[in-house]
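re: ur question from the group chat, yeah i did fold both. here u go
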Amino acid sequence: VIYRNAWKRPPIFSLIQQEGQVSDEDMDRTFNQGIMVGSIVSAIGKQPSTPLLIGVVETRKDNEPQVQFTGAYSDSQ
């Protein structure tokens, strides 16, 4: 599960979405929304740097998609 409000998107993404009238779902499928690399790491133990928590790993139910986006982008109006 990825939380859309966990980071501020670079302005180009909101411009593309607004001018192109693109839905959140299409933006999520097509663009990286400013996240260059994502890693799944354990929350236990020392981290070499401060990670940005953008979501959690959860067991999905039968018909749920593998990746779910929740919330609204922090730059959304």
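okk and heres the other one u asked abt
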Amino acid sequence: MIAARNAERAATIKTGDTVEVFLERLENAMGEAVISREKAKREEAWTRLEGVYAKNEPVMGAIVGRVKGGFTVDLGGASAFLPGSQVDIRPVRDVGPLMGKEQPFAILKMDRPRGNIVVSRRAILEEARAEQRTELVSQLQEGEIREGVVKNITDYGAFVDLGGIDGLLHVTDMSWKRVNHPSQVLAVGDTVKVQIVKINPDTQRISLGMKQLQSDPWDGVEAKYPVGAKFTGRITNITDYGAFVELEAGVEGLVHVSEMSWTKKNVHPGKIVSTSQEVDVVVLDVDPSKRRVSLGLKQALANPWEAFLEAHPVGSTVEGEVKNATEFGLFVGLDNDIDGMVHLSDIDWSVPGEEAMARYKKGDVVKAKVLDVDVEKERISLGIKQLAGDPMSGDTYRKNQTVTVTVTEVTSGGIEVAFGPDNQMNSFIRKSDLSRDRGEQRPERFAVGEKVDARVIQFDKKARKVQVSIKALEVAEEKEAIAQYGSSDSGATLG
């Protein structure tokens, strides 16, 4: 192709014309000078192209051949390389119509020592397109309403052709209501009416909007959704921190995870509600400036602590399963998935808390008395020992009273005994108090479970301590017997 173009140019030369030639050698073997018209034209072309390149101006040329990675371009005597990526703005499948056609190119790179020239047709097209875009942008105004055709849809929006120039319709500007993906609203080829929201003069980017052509549903939102009012909405989105509820098209409120359930704490919202589910909610707060509505899901339901207090007032008896045992008490499961706590000091009147708590395990069903219900703090205090009454209250025990005790443990220093209702009271009888007879002061003569009578020798309500003695009872009984015998009419005396 280049040879044909050169032959065509050579045909224009005739005898008598003055032409420039390139002197290759002063004298060859024949004694003649060696000159070249083509090399002269090439040098001339390089000089001309360097001037064009320095001024950053386009140069005319024609695509004349295909090479690896691109094409060969004739620039009027000089050959240049056109990379395949620089042919057009978009990939070109058929380059046939462009072959041999005189058209402008931009010179990207020149290396005269190596004879390399790289050109671009794409740069010329982009420049022309930029000029055209500038002219079209100058004809547009922010706030103007136009019709366009959807050319492309992405995850974040849609590109709309406004007649030679594209604008971006972002997904958040398609509708006042939540749009998860632009394809839910638009399809490629749709004709849409849009408003020009913003024109960036520096980047010439055009932002479009569809929702701006509709009335804003947030206008007067405080009057429509007053704080404390109850409404029905639909779950549109679930996150780690809560769930969004659509109250109407374009108005959504957030139910924070802390406002989802009275009893299910630290639970993912997805385990409480599901997408598209209709729920009743109560308005907690409205901020029109930030376009936020805070909603409560649990507030639309009865407060289980209030319901519990109404059904089980303080002083009543409840029954439940031991859910957990901690270092400070037992947690008992009650109605409506709420728990009550039995503090370790409220398990048994006489046994230490940790020892008393060890008698219970997870899953045991227990009865307890309601001691206190704090609705605000969501706490219920229970007591197990209060069901039996305080054995130290009133005149249940007094000094010098005779009681029947049960041996619970035999030690080398004495015996442990229990007495009272359900053996709630405990005491330790020392060796010296086991009998008035020294020979009988042997703990081993007693057996666990054996019942014996003893006398109360000390009763301290404040210290919650009752001390009993078998010896004191024997001494008291002997004195009583002697007194009775001495008052008889037999006339006998003891000596």
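fwiw on the second one: The two ends are 159 Å apart (CA to CA). The longest strand covers residues 230-239. idk if thats what u expected
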